[in-house]
Amino acid sequence: MQELGLFNQMWAAPGMSDREAVDNALAEISLADELGFTSVWIGEHHTIRDAAYYGRIPAPEVFLAFVAARTRRIRVGTGVKVLPTTTAQRAAEEMSLLDLLAQGRTEFGVGLGAAVPGSKPRAEKSADFRSLLTDILRLLRRDTSTGLPRLSPEPAPDLADRLWVACRDDETIRFAAANGLNFVVGQAEIGPRQARLTQAYRDAGGTGLVRGARIAFVAETQAEADRLSEDAVRLYFNQMAGKSYHKEATDAGELPPTADTLEEMRRQVSFIAGTPERVAEALNTYAEQLGLDRLDVMPASPGLATDAVRRSLTLLQTEVRPRLAVLF
C-alpha cells in the first residue's frame, strides 16, 4: 500500500491557549484517520519559549494514548521521544504500555533533542544516547542477561523493530545501522544535507526503513496557496533563519544569506505550498533524493487558518497521494 503519514510538531503561537492547540490537533487527526492517512507522529517539546511559537506536548505517549482511543486505523508515533529526559526502563515501559493500549498501532521515533544552554557536549550526549538506546533494546527484546528486569506489561515481540532513530553524528548512525534500527530525518534541514545522512546510514549497512518529513500545504490554485500560506511561511522562515540547520547550510554556502521573495523563503526552509500537482512533484523529488521508504507531511503550521489546514488535508489525501511515486 502506498503510505502517507502526518507529522505534527504541535507548534502554536503564544496567543493560542493549550486547550485550543490540542483541540485543533485532535480534530485534524480524527479527520486524517477518516481520510486514510496511515500514521501520525507527535513532537515532544518542553517549557514555554520566548519565540513566535513553541511546541505544546511534553509527553507524547500520554497524548497518543488518547488519540489511539479516538481513532480506528491510523498508527501513532513519537516524533521524536527525547531520550536524555528519561531512563531506559521508563522509556521502554511507556512504549510497551502505549503499544498495548493502541493494539499494536505504534511507532517510536527517538532522538537526542535540541541542544540547550548548560547541556553536555554533543559527543558526550550522543554516547549517553547510545547507552540508553542499548538498554531500551534489551528491555524491549526481553533480554535479562545483563541484569535488566522484565517489563510489565511485556513488550510485543516486534516492538523493537518499530523504533526509528533520528541522529546526525557518524557513530550513532553506525549504531543504528548495526542494530537493525530504522532511520528518520525531520523537517528542519534542506534535502541535500539530509540525503548525506540517509546515504551514510545505508553505507554503514543500514537495512531498516528510511523516513522523512516536509511541511506541505495544498490549495486548488497556486495563487490561493500563496495567499493562504504567506503568513505561515514568513513566520516559519523568521523562526528558522540564521539558526541551527539553516545557519549550517548558509555557512557552508549551500543556501544564500538572504531570501528576498516568498518563493525563496519557502525553498530555504523546505515549506512546500501549491497546487496538488506542484506539491506532489516536490514531494516526489524529495523522496527520490533521499531514497525514502516512508514519507510524512506536516499540514499544520502557525499562521495557517484551521479551515485551510483541513481543506489541505483532504487535498493531500485525494489529489496529492495518488500522484506520489509508488515508493512507499
What is this entry, summarized?
This protein is of the alpha/beta class and 328 residues long.
- Overall SS class: alpha/beta
Low-pLDDT stretches are: none
The coarse overall form would be globular
How many β strands by DSSP?
11
Order of helices and strands: EEHEEHEHEHEHEHEHHHEHEH
From the alpha carbons, calculate the radius of gyration and give it in angstroms: 19 Å
How many helices? The count is: 11
Please summarize the sheet with the most strands: 8 strands, parallel, barrel
Q: Percent range for helical residues?
A: 40-55%
Mean pLDDT: 96
Going across the biggest sheet, name each strand in turn: 1-3-5-6-7-8-9-11
Roughly what fraction of the amino acids lie in strands? 15-25%
Ends: how far apart? 7 Å
Quaternary structure: single chain
Care to describe what's here?
With 328 residues, this protein is an alpha/beta fold. Helices cover 45% and strands 15% of the residues. The chain contains 11 helices and 11 strands. The chain has an 8-stranded parallel barrel, surrounded by 6 helices. The protein is globular, with a radius of gyration of 19 Å. The mean pLDDT is 96.
Which helices and strands occur, and which strands form pairs?
Layout: E1 5-8, E2 11-12, H1 18-35, E3 39-42, E4 54-55, H2 60-70, E5 75-82, H3 88-101, E6 106-111, H4 122-140, E7 163-165, H5 170-178, E8 182-184, H6 191-203, E9 210-218, H7 222-240, H8 244-251, H9 262-269, E10 271-274, H10 276-290, E11 294-298, H11 306-320
Parallel strand pairs: 1-3, 1-11, 3-5, 5-6, 6-7, 7-8, 8-9, 9-10, 9-11
Antiparallel strand pairs: 2-4
